[in-house]
Design brief:
Elements lengths: L11 H8 L8 E11 L5 E12 L4 E6 L5 H8 L7 E10 L2 E2 L5 H7 L4 E4 L3 H4 L6 H12 L4 H14 L5 H5 L8 H13 L5 E5 L7 H18 L2 E6 L2 H7 L2 E6 L2 E7 H6 L4 H8 L30 E13 L10 E14 L4 E6 L5 H8 L7 E6 L2 E2 L5 H10 E4 L3 H4 L6 H7 L9 H14 L15 H13 L5 E5 L7 H18 L2 E5 L3 H7 L2 E6 L2 E7 H6 L4 H9 L2 E5 L3 E5 L16 H4 E2 L6 E2 L3 E4 L8 E4 L4
Parallel strand pairs: 3-8, 3-9, 6-7, 7-8, 13-18, 13-19, 16-17, 17-18
Antiparallel strand pairs: 1-2, 1-4, 4-5, 9-10, 11-12, 11-14, 14-15, 19-20, 20-26, 21-22, 23-24, 25-26
Length: 633
Amino acid sequence: MMTRDAAIVTPVASVLADVRGQPEPPLLSVRDLTLGFRASGGSTKPVVQRVSFDLDAGQSLAVVGESGSGKTLIGKTLLGLLPDAAHIMGGSVSFAGQPLLEQTPAQWRTTRGVGIGMVFQEPMVSLNPAFRIGEQLTEALVRRRGVPRAQAWGQAVAMLERVRVRDPQGCMKRFPHEFSGGMRQRIMLAAVMLLRPRLLIADEPTTALDCVVQKEVLDLMTELTREEGTALIFISHNLALVAAYTEQVLVMRAGVAVETGPAVRVLSKPSHDYTLALLDALPRRLPAVSADVESPDVSGKSAMPLQPPVLEVRDVVIDYQAARSGMAAWFGGKRSVRAVHRTSFSLRAGETLAIVGESGSGKTSLTKVVLGLVEPAEGDVLLSGERFLGTGAKQLQAARRAIQIVFQDPYSSLDPRMRVGALVAEGLRADKRLTAAQRRERVSTALADVSLADHARRFVHELSGGQRQRVAIARALASRPAVIIADEPVSALDVTVQKQVLDMLVSLQARYGFACLLISHDLGVVEQIADRVLVMLRGHIVEEGSRDAVFDDPCHPYTRRLLQAVPELRGNRADGFKVLSREVPAQRLDDAAYFDPESAQQGTGQIGHAIAPRLTEIAQGAAGHRVALQAAA
């Protein structure tokens, strides 16, 4: 193992302490840290107030709390990366026995990466899109550790193997944009751990990843830190992950540490009301009721008689054109890549259908076809029984008014130059059936529906993340759509705001009766509000059925793996909370009986000839519960 820089070796005082039989001081010690932002009048407003904690070598600490509580600011302080407007108002930080906050720029450059490494939420922000992966992984080893370039290349390849990147030699020669989000996060983790830091800060490292990839990345991160003896600070709003992957927890609220201690104790028997509020906000399913009883169902919506579908996707196939690679690139042209194989589903008014699956499974591609943004290679989409794709601009425009979307990141989908009222009204401009007075009425009603009636004159940057998402929902509601597509609508929000937005969405659906197509990788959210679930893998539907059937009786190996990938926090205030792994019933058939997209892909043509699965009704299962089996020989 390589030696560490002299700047971060264990101080002499620690060695003497061991000789005298005294406990070794903590690797990181934060005392009364107070941070503030300079206001326009010259005053400084505190945003983190007198936060203190210790972290020993090899120990893990989770920092949890709602957006704006100061979690990320603490992490940036430890790296000397506070924004210009931020100011350290008081306190001290000691790292490896040395004061951290008084370091010179040269000392900070030595500490970053080698002493303290950081994995950010979005790896594309950290990976330079203009350089190949190999150049980015070896640069720090050569410059910071003095490793010869050939040796650095070998170490980088070995680290990519450790984080389970397929074809690590090939990965070194490719660019970041050629990889999925989960693979980029693995590469970022490899880049940070190559320098063997003594402290790793992970700031929401898996928020944008699906459940299976999330578990793989977190397992790798904890495995590497354990092997290297690296201390870990895990910044997250996911309390279940905190409970499963860390030893200590620090709960932040409005810049104040309200509770701290062992994760098992804090999350099982919290003592502060705010910690209890975070746990109470966790998504959970209500008890199921009989289908023949006229009463609210498991998602809080009223049972309704079966009616014709408002949206039908019939045998849709989606192909994309991609550049050729290798020797084939010399001959030019494009190759067709099949993103979604023959897919059908329907959606009724007042119903919520959730589509879940790994990144790249085809979920977002399907929504683009439904919105008329992508032409399918085969198949069709019907709105209230009528075709609208390829039937003319007028029909497409009417369909787009009837099908609205709420995006994952409202800040990137809302024009920052426009006020909230104008943003909500924008979608009504093309609707000639409404007068100016009716448009104004629609806007005020939509804003009132999302509890933002007095925010019409504000700009987007003046709102919190939850308020921005409410504006996005109000904009979708203004045209009175028949279908709302919610694409990861709460993945970037903390649990308390998540609960508020989801409760509001369910309430609005009950009031207006729109159908909802939910795209999510958060199974807790799906379990809370979905009526039916459709599971996709590599462009194929591998399982579909009612929410209760899919969650309680999963059949396909991928569905089972998906449900078992994420730990759950279950419990109540009286009995406490604990981490549970979801238990699934015994598998009905051998793995070989179920459809596997990997083995089904045959041939080397432009698209390849995939063997289609047989979506088969499950014997002795709930009505409509189907699973993909291997095609009959």
